[in-house]
Design a protein that fits this description.
About 60% of the residues lie in helices and about 5% in strands. The chain has 22 helices and nine strands. The strands form three sheets. A five-stranded mixed β-sheet has the order 4-3-5-7-6. It has a two-stranded antiparallel ribbon with strand order 1-2. The longest helix has about 30 residues.
Length: about 575
């Protein structure tokens, strides 16, 4: 190499250097405490809000939806009658969202979006507390456990979770756990009363007794707001409805069936085993909470190990306080009639806080040999169960229902990633890889829920298609009359005001000359009394079940008018 080539090579070598003294360039990532909050926000939005309003309403959600379409009051109204189990805040919030939509086209998001936002807010509230205490890893793992649980993915009241009531209860408990029994905690307790009545107040009171701290005890600031709110609500209900309606709302939780007594016969034992599946027995509340917290809730049992509990004092005992609240809420929901729904979400919160703490102990490598074996046993059992479900689900989604083939392919790939990650974790005895496998599993569960379960459940069991088929025969302002209470999810899907008739003869009043529509069973239509207004059949609808009865939409003679008052037609009297 000549002198010119050496000079060019030296210049090229200098051009590749970042620093003249051959120093290394080190990029420092920001502390986890700085980015944990935004990461939790994105995590919650991805897990909860994606597909958050795709399912049809059922059960309690449908009742709230019908009440939201009726108006605002101290209690919700269903079929024009006060409902003692629909309190003002859920009905009012859903009413506000309902008014944003198009009249005559009920949107399931009117009920599901407030529940989803309440679940997100409750999770962010508790996670923020761990970030403030300098434990961002626990906060992030709690985010995966909370937002990735089956309860938050559904966020449906028909599953036994009241998210608006739960948000107010958890916010009050969070305030008490931060050792502040002040006006803010009292206002949250007032919101809990207006969302679910006295059961959430009982959960808060029992939690105060269990905590047993002077700075989180009953104080005037904590007790005065809910008491004043309860008194104001009582007089408001008497003024707007009646004293009977107020009494019915307060007594209604005590009328719920409670099955925690011991069976006295062999048949009783069989019935007690079947009851949690068939009727939702109250004593099965702890089991339901464990299932609602899947897939990460079983890891809470790792805290029975001494090494997993070593880090619980680092946060000032916040994890142990939530565990105490969870145990108290679960017991209260199991033994007190009507409290199971109000106690479910605080108990689930405590369970998943414990799971996050156990996972953080595994992530940081603090588990002893026995706890390590338990951790790998749990992760292996979860992965084997998930691999079996993935194999069957991928076959169904890719071969049987080809409409879901893209979801099925992604589902199969996600399941393979979970298995491969855990396999590598077992080979290397890496606790972090085991935790990562479980976090990937939560993402796969969200994919299956939003992509397959929610739309398929709506198609097979939802009342939306039948309700929309009936509603297309009616203008939005026309009232539909019935002789008995149809399922609330059907009434919600119809999207029209529904009123109950005391008798068929009442269909003629008030006398306005307008034609009135009535929805009847086939037997009711065939046995319509001659003394009632004569009917003309409009349409016949097949039942959702082959064992059900046909539904008949009929109307009386008279004029049909649009909202502007224009005459549409005149129905002749039947011969």
């Amino acid at each position: 190499m000549n002198r010119v080539d050496e000079k060019h090579a030296a210049r090229a070598d200098l051009g590749r250097r970042f620093r003249a003294d051959d120093g290394q360039l080190v990029l420092k990532l920001p502390e986890a405490r700085a980015w944990a909050g935004p990461a939790l926000i994105l995590l919650g939005l991805a897990y909860v809000l994606v597909g958050g309003a795709d399912a049809d309403l059922a059960g309690r959600d449908a009742r709230i939806g019908v009440a939201a379409s009726e108006g605002f009051g101290p209690l919700g109204q269903v079929y024009g009658r006060w409902r003692p189990d629909v309190w003002p805040i859920p009905a009012a919030v859903s009413r506000l969202v309902f008014l944003l939509g198009e009249r005559g086209k009920p949107e399931n998001g009117a009920v599901l979006w407030p529940s989803a936002v309440a679940g997100l807010a409750a999770g962010w509230l508790v996670a923020r507390r761990f970030i403030a205490l300098g434990r961002p890893a626990v906060a992030l793992l709690f985010g995966f456990a909370w937002f990735g649980s089956t309860a938050l993915m559904d966020h449906a009241g028909s599953r036994g979770m009241d998210f608006l009531t739960g948000l107010a209860t958890i916010a009050a408990l969070d305030r008490l756990l931060s050792r502040r029994s002040d006006w803010v905690a009292g206002l949250w307790a007032s919101a809990a009363f207006l969302s679910g009545g006295w059961p959430p107040l009982l959960v808060i009171a029992l939690s105060v007794l269990v905590l047993g701290r002077r700075d989180a005890d009953f104080s005037f600031k904590l007790v005065a707001p809910p008491v004043a709110t309860a008194v104001a609500w009582f007089f408001w209900t008497i003024e707007a409805a009646s004293a009977e309606a107020a009494a019915a709302a307060l007594v209604w939780p005590l009328t719920q069936r409670l099955q925690w007594s011991l069976p006295t016969s062999a048949l009783g034992w069989v019935a007690s085993i079947v009851a949690p599946i068939d009727q939702g027995a109250a004593w099965a509340v702890p089991l339901k909470i464990l299932v609602a917290g899947l897939p990460l809730s079983p890891f809470a049992f790792l805290l029975f190990g001494r090494s997993a509990r070593e880090g619980l004092k680092a946060d000032g005992g916040l994890v142990m306080d939530w565990i105490r609240v969870a145990v108290a809420a679960a017991i209260c929901g199991a033994v007190v009639p009507g409290v199971a729904t109000a106690a479910a979400l605080p108990a689930l919160m405590g369970l998943l806080v414990a799971s996050a703490s156990a996972l953080e102990a595994a992530w940081s490598g603090r588990l002893a040999a026995g706890e390590r074996r338990s951790f790998f046993g749990l992760t292996t059992a979860m992965t084997v169960a998930w691999a079996s479900l993935t194999a069957y689900g991928a076959f169904v989604m890719t071969i049987v229902f080809t409409y879901y083939r893209p979801i099925g392919v992604a589902f199969a790939i996600g399941g393979a990633v979970v298995v491969a990650t855990l396999w590598r974790a077992l080979e290397t005895r890496s606790l972090r890889r085991g935790v990562a496998a479980m976090l990937i599993l939560t993402a796969c569960l969200k994919l299956a829920h939003a992509g397959f379960y929610a739309p398929e459940w709506t198609y097979r069991y939802g009342q939306g298609p039948w309700g929309r088929a009936i509603g297309q025969w009616l203008l939005p302002h026309w009232t539909l009359y019935t002789q008995h209470e149809w399922p609330e999810d059907l009434a919600w899907a119809i999207g029209r005001p529904v009123r109950l008739l005391s008798s068929p003869q009442h269909l003629a009043f008030p006398e306005t000359g307008e034609s009135r529509h009535v929805l009847l069973l086939e037997s009711e239509y065939e046995n319509w009394p001659p003394s009632a207004p004569k009917l003309v059949k409009v349409a016949t609808f097949e039942p959702p079940s082959p064992f059900g009865s046909r539904r008949i939409l009929a109307r009386t003679e008279g004029t049909l008018t649009t909202p502007s008052g224009r005459l549409v037609s005149r129905v002749p009297a039947p011969r």
